[in-house]
Amino acid sequence: NKSIKIMLKQITNYDGLVVRSATKVTAEVISAGSNLKIIGRAGTGVDNVDVEADVFIIFMNYSFNGNTISAAELTCALLMSLSRHIPQAVISMKDGKWDRKKFMGAELYGKVLGIVGLGRIGKEVATRMQSFGMKTIGYDPITPPEVSASWGVEQMSLEELWPQCDYITVHTPLMPSTTGLLNDTSFAKCKKGVKVVNCARGGIIDEAALLRALESGQCGGAGLDVFVEEPPKDRALVNHPNVISCPHLGASTKEAQARCGKEIALQIVDMATGKALVGAVNAQVLVSSFSPDSHQWILLGESMGRVLKACTASKEPFSQVHVTSLGESLKKSTGFLSSAAVVGLLTEGPQKGPNLVNALPLAAETGITVQTDHKDNECEACVLEVSVNSRSYKAVGSVQAGVPVLLELNGSVFRQPVPLTGHLLFFKAANSTELLLSVTGVLAAAGVELQSYSASTAGSGEQWYCMGISSLLGDIGALKSLVKEAAQLTV
Ligand SMILES: NC(=O)C1=CN([C@@H]2O[C@H](COP(=O)(O)OP(=O)(O)OC[C@H]3O[C@@H](n4cnc5c(N)ncnc54)[C@H](O)[C@@H]3O)[C@@H](O)[C@H]2O)C=CC1
Ligand SMILES: O=C(O)C(=O)COP(=O)(O)O
After folding, report:
1. Are residue 41 and residue 166 in the same domain, yes or no?
2. Is 409 found in the same domain as 326?
3. Is the pTM of this model over 0.90?
4. d(CA 180, CA 182)
5. Atom 30 in ligand 1: which residue has the minimum CA distance?
6. 252: Cβ below 6 Å to ligand 2?
7. Residue 57, domain extent
8. CA of 28 to the centre of ligand 2 (A)
9. ipTM of the prediction greater than 0.85, yes or no
10. 367-395 burial by CB neighbour count: b if 16+ within 10 A, else e?
11. Which of these, 15, 16, 51, 257, could form a disulfide with 38 (CB 3.0-4.6 Å)?
């Protein structure tokens, strides 16, 4: 369709894409987006995006209640319209008629409403329809019965629910387990004349079965906001006299659009600035790992990866990466620590932007084996070991007072933990009293200020130094040779 053609032409210029439901983000669009890093859905349903197409792209939908109230209000409006035939009466009035007999309705008061899917919208529909005096019953495999009972919905199995309902409304995502939830068999178990509403996704109520139930009178009316094909080419349902329908208007209010747009924009900014990862559909493990506490451990993993990458100074790819988390509280963190370390190791490499979602698949694709381990030590720390060309390198780090610090490099323990923030200059050299003076001298002459300094004990024969510096001199190569000269380094 038109939007796909436009996207295929332009998508390569963009790092991010935000869509509503009508825009189909196909595998073809995703592969054309060579710079694409994130796809945001300003809404709930994610069925218009091929989530599986690229593991390198973070895909998120809004995670709060952006369009919940709007979709719930439209559902309630359809339930009321079904009970009093309002749309049909409006058309008849516009036709110049005054037909009071034809539009005899029924009260909602005292009737039973079955709600399938007791998430955000299901809950809001329930509480609103209770104010009309409806009895609300429902089913949801995840929402606990005591939770839904606290907002007035008694849960039961679908088998028990179907025969009790005067009205049924569905509020689930569309997935294999919900496709055709209302079909010939379930319609047959319902009360004759049951009225149904679908403001969720086309196909949750099987369209062919619905048409058959309407024609036989088993279904007394349907309110449809969504269709399997949108817009529907087959108009049999839309044209049925007992069907009232809308062109997918559930979220089409000024308020919902403003909220969804703002929420998804903020989520993307939070992710891009490393503040939080909220609403990611294809990175659930990472979502839970983005708590303020784990954030510093993620920064530690990335920084340690960068330090070891710089240390190896080799163009050869790593063959093995081993990440060990130490300490009871890091038991569940090994996964994101290893992803973070791989991000650091691959940054500035030839691969397309490594991030926490794609790091491990990217490593596998590059032929790097990543192993993880956990030990219940008393102290909390992360140990990163990498092998390049049969040589191995090792760093040990931790988070102290909320700051990621390096404790040990290649067997040499730093006398003071090295805070892994800002610009850091690592070098190894033979121990000499003049060393600090001569290195700071050349740096000062080049306009670089020394902000911190740590030295390691000469553990396994290597003595490491780390200097926090004010700037990078623009050219890192020039800085390196200055320091090499000053310190008479061998590496
Ligand atoms: N017409 C429109 O414009 C709009 C449509 N929607 C659609 O409405 C639906 C519901 O949205 P939300 O309430 O925000 O989602 P939600 O994620 O808050 O709730 C969905 C609920 O369905 C439940 N569920 C999953 N499988 C089920 C099954 N087999 N049987 C019964 N329940 C099941 C889940 O446990 C969850 O509680 C989604 O399909 C969404 O795409 C949402 C907003 C606007
Ligand atoms: O959020 C949803 O699932 C919707 O169906 C709303 O879709 P829309 O953003 O209005 O195209």
Report:
1. no
2. yes
3. no
4. 5
5. 140
6. yes
7. 2-65+254-282
8. 22
9. yes
10. ebebebebeeeeebbbbbbbbbeeeebbb
11. 16
